[in-house]
Amino acid sequence: MASTRDWLLDDSPTSRLQASLGRFYRIAAALMRNPLSVLGGLIILLLIVTAVGAPWIAPYSATGQDLANRLMPPSAAHWMGTDELGRDIFSRVVWGSQITLTIVLLVALIAAPLGLLIGAISGYFGGWVDKALMGVTDVFLSMPKLILALAFVAALGPGINNAIIAIAITTWPAYARIARAETLTFRNAEFISAVQLQGASPLRVITRHILPLCTPSMIIRVTLDMAGIILTAAGLGFIGLGAQPPLPEWGAMISRGRTFILDQWWVATMPGFAIIIVSLGFCFLGDGLRDALDPKQADKH
Amino acid sequence: MAPLVDIANLRVSFPTPRGRVEVVKGISFTLGRERLGIVGESGSGKSMTGRSILKLIRPPGRVTADRMTFDGIDLLAQSERDMRAIRGARISMVMQDPKFSLNPVMTVGEQIAEALVTHKKLPRRQIYERVIAMLEAVRINDPARVAKLYPHEISGGMGQRVMIAMMLIPEPDLLIADEPTSALDVSVQAQVLDIIDDLVRDKGMGLILISHDLSLVSRYCDRILVMNAGTVVEECVASELQNAKHPYTRGLLAAMPTLDESREELPVLDRTQWAGT
Amino acid sequence: MNAITLTDLDVSYGDTKVVHGINLEIAEGESFALVGESGSGKSTVLRAIAGLAPDWEGRISVLGKARTHGIDRQVARHCQMVFQDPYGSLHPRKTIDATLAEPLAIHGLSNRGARVEAMLAAVGLDRRFRFRFPHQLSGGQRQRVAIARALMLEPKVLLLDEPTSALDVSVQAEILNLLKRLRREQGLTYLLVTHNLPVVSFLCDRLAVMRHGRIVEVAGVDQLKAGALTEPYSKELLAASGGHAEILPT
Ligand SMILES: Nc1ncnc2c1ncn2[C@@H]1O[C@H](COP(=O)(O)OP(=O)(O)O)[C@@H](O)[C@H]1O
Ligand SMILES: Nc1ncnc2c1ncn2[C@@H]1O[C@H](COP(=O)(O)OP(=O)(O)O)[C@@H](O)[C@H]1O
Ligand SMILES: [Mg+2]
Ligand SMILES: [Mg+2]
């Protein structure tokens, strides 16, 4: 063990692989030193394990109705009780984790690279390219996220896929802004001038030299935004524009449970807990990443 | 007469992942009303020494000393509040880059005036006169106009002169100048140092001039401490610098090219011999 | 053939013209210095030659060929630049290996690993440094990497923008020795910007004194060594750095 660690922390690595693994190890080690970010990481790990292992973890089907056992309080048979159609809430929450994870991953996969690229192009070229791209970005930014998502879903029609597209469309502008600001701080740096002088094409300068510098702040921002994305998805589900019944989406579950909130509190509360815990998990991890990826941190020996 | 500054066994350390590291390793010196130069390469601990005297080293940095007095005051025993009364009024510090030391939203005149009134209550009229007189003293032409300018409207050399005016207007007993001219052009450097020199001599102050430039320090100081890796390797009278004995000092002197250079190759320091870090 | 010829060169940033009517001929193999106070336009001249300050008028030719305004891949092969700040001129997230291999990749040159190792040896860096990140190097080591990067494409002309002014004297001596040796070994032409006259005396054959964007005097280094510059402003510069020389043991 000790020798692997020494190999990773070697001051003079002997190969490209060792150098990048070493850097990765240092970041991971910095992350592990912060208890909250470890907790956040564990929560997200739990989310992933639950989503992947849902068929084996969930004791019941997510959609199978059992009208004889409607609105049962939590018990040994139904850990989180049952809802108004007699469905096991624990099983629904477990299955619902798949939907949440899909939303989060797809939004991150669509919005972050899109924002990154638009921001970097805008910042790198400046001039009218910048004006045009940032004009579009500002139009999106000037509208409240949920309202904009609502408008998109209303236009595209309700459903989980459209909800994902709508959320992705509303999140990229913030990333574009960050990426542009970062790009502006680097674009006149001497190390960028140096690659330009070697004859590198703008595409190469942006993808190979500028984007790697923007990604740490982007990763941090996306992680911190995940909570908001989950809440927006839940919000859309709650007002009936996201996932459609009988899909066990957490926001939609709360919405259905709110009719019984006074007498059968568990119906709305259990998926609510799930949303809060996962959101907090992302926030903790994001905060930890901010400390671990901070370039100033990395510059200390 | 008791010395102005008396320091014995000063140590400054910082925590690092590999444990606490001393960056100043037990240096001792005394200073009268004279001009002391501290030279050495970057990272040798010059700034940390200067900042220790003002107790400007923040935790987790730690300063210890057997003795550290200023004009009979035991600096080690002073509280942060007591130190604020000493800083500026009795000991001033000029930093390397005026751009970072001047407040961008205040005019030059206001800043100099503020430096004065924080330590002394004076009628307005008199404050203005003192500010103008001080700007004249640092050889700024048309001081009344310059007093109304903002920091971004003046050049680097002028900015540094304004800094000096600010530091000297409360008439301190000791001026610590940490690389005061490193950000300036050669021709401006000489002007700024001449001004510091004149003012220090006129007012009979003590001066600690910190620099990496051996020739500059030897021109403007009476006595020189040569630092390397947190220790003083050589102490000598400024005029005797070219007869320095320590191989490190000699190495530094030899490594500088001269105006009439004829050597094919410059001798370089063999670092392994003194490498502390 | 001249390495660099500048004819009536004016350079502007936006609406302000900062370099006015520069005429200069630098022979192949020569080491030429541009000196003057900061803001006098020295770096701007270098950036125009390199293609980083595209807003110029007049004529710039490099190795006999007139150059276009932007960055030019062909000029890039022959003419490279070393920047002043060793901390700002290396990409903070790339290993030394990646930084040095990049120009080879851009120009599709093969055998990159071996070339990088050979270049590290040429600039006096141990192989241990190859896979380190810039923050693991000292200022002098970084400047060696910057010089190595500029030499990767085997250029004939090297533009040096104050390559030692951010370094300690002992490190400056190492870099100056390195530059002198590389020029001898590879027959390079240097155009060096500096405000340090002793450096000119050590490394250069001729110098031009600039002030307010104009060249006020061109002189041989012998004139500098003899203190025989003629223009009043040049004399002023000489006087300002004169004191540096007098305390030194000779
Ligand atoms: N906050 C800090 N933490 C750790 N080390 C520090 C800190 N500040 C300064 N140092 C180290 O102290 C040493 C001396 O610094 P300094 O006194 O600023 O040197 P100089 O002689 O260039 O003024 C340097 O090696 C520097 O890396
Ligand atoms: N990117 C830029 N945009 C606008 N003005 C600039 C820019 N770079 C330099 N300048 C101005 O051009 C002048 C010459 O600068 P420079 O060539 O860097 O001088 P030197 O290298 O001699 O110190 C200065 O007045 C400076 O303010
Ligand atoms: Mg310092
Ligand atoms: Mg310059």
User: Helical proportion of chain B?
Assistant: 25-40%
**Amount of beta strand of chain B:** 15-25%
Rg of chain B over CA atoms, rounded to whole Å, is: 20 Å
- The number of helical runs of chain B is 10
Q: Let me know the number of strands of chain B.
A: 11
Ends apart, CA distance between termini of chain A: 22 Å
Low-confidence stretches of chain B: none
The overall average pLDDT of chain B, rounded, is 87
CATH topology annotation of chain A: MetI-like fold
Identify the CATH class of chain B: Alpha Beta
Pfam families (chain A): BPD_transp_1, OppC_N
Membrane topology (chain A): Multi-pass membrane protein
Family (chain A): Belongs to the binding-protein-dependent transport system permease family.
Keywords (chain A): Cell membrane, Membrane, Peptide transport, Protein transport, Transmembrane, Transmembrane helix, Transport
Structure, explained:
The complex is a heterotrimer of chains A (about 300), B (about 280) and C (about 250). Chain A is about 75% helix and about 0% strand. By secondary structure, chain A is mainly α. The mean pLDDT of chain A is about 85. With about 280 residues, chain B is α/β, with parallel strands linked by helices. Chain B has a six-stranded mixed beta sheet, with helices on both faces. In chain B, strands 1, 2, 4, 5 and 6 form a five-stranded antiparallel beta sheet that branches. The radius of gyration of chain B is 20 Å and the shape is globular. Chain B starts with a strand and ends in a 22-residue tail after the last helix. With about 250 residues, chain C is an alpha/beta fold. Chain C is globular, with a radius of gyration of 18 Å. In chain C, the strands form two sheets. Chain C has a six-stranded mixed beta sheet, sandwiched between helices. In chain C, strands 2-1-4-5 form a four-stranded antiparallel beta sheet, with helices on one face. Chain C has a domain at about 1-90 and about 160-240: P-loop containing nucleotide triphosphate hydrolases (Rossmann fold, 3-Layer(aba) Sandwich). In chain C, about 40% of the residues lie in helices and about 25% in strands. Chain C is built from nine helices and ten strands. In chain C, α3 packs across α4 (about 110-120) and α5 packs parallel to α6 (about 170-185). In chain C, α6 (about 170-185) links the parallel β7 and β8 (about 190-195). Classes of the chains: A mainly alpha (about 300), B alpha/beta (about 280), C alpha/beta (about 250). The interface of B and C includes residues 214, 252 and 255 of B. The complex binds adenosine-5'-diphosphate (2 copies) and magnesium ion (2 copies). One adenosine-5'-diphosphate binds near residues 13, 36, 38 and 44 of chain C. One adenosine-5'-diphosphate binds near residues 14, 40, 47 and 61 of chain B.
